[in-house]
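User: Please predict structures.

Assistant: First:
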Amino acid sequence: MYLGIDVGTSSLKALLSDDKGNIIDSESCEYPLLLPKENWAEQNPDDWFNAQVKVIKALGKRHDLTKINGVSFCGQMHGLVLLDKNDKVIRPALLWNDNRTVNECNYLNNVVGQSKLIAWTGNIAFTGFTAPKILWIKNNERSNFAKISKIMLPKDYTAYKMTGVFASDYSDGSGTLYMDVKHKTWSKKMLDVLGINETQLPKLYESYQPVGNVSKQFAQLTGMSTKTKVIIGGGDQAVGAVGTGTVGDNQLCISLGTSGVVFASCNHFAEIASGAMHSFVHANGKYHVMGVMLSAAGSFNWWRKEILHDHDFKALEQEINKASATNLYFLPYLSGERSPINDPNARGAFSGITLSHTRGDLTRAVIEGVNFGLFDCLKSINAIGISPKSARVIGGGSKSKAWLQNLADILGIKLHIINTSDGGGLGAIILAMTGCGEFKNVEEGCNKIIKNVQTFTPNAKQHRYYLEKFKQFKNLYQALKK
């Protein structure tokens, strides 16, 4: 069997598969999100470890865990985990959605300079990235900064607790802003800016490479075998893309989760001079370009639950199908925005509301606004010569046929739904199977396991209409920009 562990923001989920990659069982465990101040988001790394032990033990009540050949990880990116010389957690981890680092990002982008950041790392500074978090600790918690012995990402901590091996991978390392993405190495110049050194950082591996075995201590704690190989895995977006089969050159997947992601895989490193998109290493050992919206399904859930207080999704979808959002606009920047505008001060807005508009019209406008944000990311990807003809779509929003048809009409490309919704966990299993020799490479595993099951084709007339409406969407953001 094979085990995939997905270290998420709200919970840790473990998927168990047979030797063909078929999911045979799963288990999950939730843990708290700490919000001590406005714009802060933290978690206790030991909550991840305890959840990991709990789900594995639960699976052990139903399966012989000694038959697990390999295990791998999918993890929330950018989080800052700090250990002292005794391997004790120094403070709660700062998460990907922690936005306290505006001043540090301004320093990196404007004083150090975006051109230098792109030359050294391939990317510019965003509040979610790890490097600004390290600077924040240095600037605000000097005593904690002085204690740092090991710097990890969330899934690296769970792997470390399982193996005792201090390791990370290139896909997750890409989101730190102190890794040279193009050359797959820690950036000495960025480490100097941050005031840290390479001895505090883990050894880097490809996401499908074994880094060790389950330790004796962890085996005794959970019932696993010390013969089980541990494959390091990767960041959630890259591993999730593996779980959709988006691993070939010029392929695209879109995630309609709380945040929205437009992910294009490519065989070569793509330098993005504007820094509008992220250019990272892929979990298959190649590269990818990615745009991230902070509020995609998050915008829709806010509208549906907080404003409408309506939990009947099917009824809302019927309203959407009947509605028209002509001359009605919604800016989906409810948490600021990352890609491609990189504006933490951006704010959401409705524009063009009249007495004739219905609840359904406004709901449709919310969906159109989210889809315009995704289109904005895709256009930035197109601008560097990557032009996929179709995309696979995952996430909660992909359950809505009305949403998917509107997205196809706006993007102007075919959208596919696939035969699995397991995403990151399945991607981790494919990496584990590759690392254990079941597949010769990640691509082979994806081709054998993942298939299209439904397709949404764009309406050419609607696409032309939305091209014009998108121009007004962009003008509206500029007009309201602080």
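Second:
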Amino acid sequence: MANNAVVNMFKVKELRSKLFFTLFILAVFRFGSVLTIPGINATLLAQYFENLGSGAESAFASYMDFFAGGAFERFSVFMLGVMPYISTQIILQLALVIFPSLKRIAQEEGGQQKVQMWTRVGAIFVCLLQSYVVTVYADSISQAIPGVLIFSGWKFNIIAMLTVTTGSMITVWIGDQITAHGVGNGISMIILAGIVARMPSAIHELVKSVQAGQVNVVFALIALGLYIVLIGFIVYEQSGERKIPVHYAKRVVGRKMYGGQSTYLPFKINPSGVIPIIFASAFLTFPLQLANGFASRSGAAPWLTSVTQALNPLGWLYNVIEVLLIVFFAYFYTQVTLNPVEIAKNIRENGGSIPGIRTDKTEEYLTKVLNRLILPGALYLAVIAILPTIIQLVFKFPQSISMLMGGTSLLIIVGVVLDTMAQVEALLKMHHHDGFTKKGLKPRNL
């Protein structure tokens, strides 16, 4: 009888330990996501969000909950999740590109450790700022429903800011532990866990909406069919790649002869994966939370309310900005991770060449190929990212359902699952066990 991949996963001691460790860490994360920060009446808080209805504030709360797995509406210790860290990471990566002196420091020995330290220190300051906005938002809720705050004033502000900041940095640490000792990329797994945790409640809410007549059952079936087709399309696209043939000439090193072989450079059809969407969402989360938090204060400046309305996740301006950011980060991230100059340099130094391309034109050729791949991939990401908004406006789906059952959520789920499966597959093959497929997870050649 053929070996089953799931059974093989638990036969390998190393992989079994990694899987159980990952599940344990994710369980700790989910526990922290339901643990309300001190000074909040959880019952009255749940009542407030239940009666919130539809509007800009409801859209904001659903958006913030999307990556936090319901932790934001609960005002839990993990309510900010990993977004402050990702926002700081983006700012620092942009600074490395803009300022050559910082880039030189990063390229020195031990430079990456310095960049990691700067990112964590910067994330603490971002967390403190965002957690202060959380206290402002909580104060506005207490004005709508007295008693939400058990104690208010500077005591609550200090406790909330310290608790939320500590919780966010613990979340980052948890992600690092998964990357180091578990399976998959830790930060991505944290985001995935938050999205998956919201799925059951979203499906339940959809069923209730259909039963109440708020959503047409035909539209619901069409949307669900569209999601299934979309999952297949995302898997098909994520596995596609462009193979660039490379031939290495024979060369003698000492008494041994190396080279004389042909291989290829695998460029994915969407080289940046789901990173542009995560970056764009994190980049928009920061100003969105600041605007909504300060606009909720009594006597807030009128322009803050205008910014809040303009940055409504259902508004056209927000979606246009998101599309532009996705395209920008697709180019930015691809150039950082797949630098044609460095790739061409490595090929030349190892005596390689691309058939039909002059050696001094290798960099130009690789740049041309990447540019042809990045734009279609970025537009594909952008279309899928705004799909939940279109579905919500056309089929009248609640935002919590449309955001969690399509678009960005599907991209993240499929992308993270495929990457994790590839890592598990590699570990199984290393221990001579059959993986998920007989020949392994091989991408399609386009």
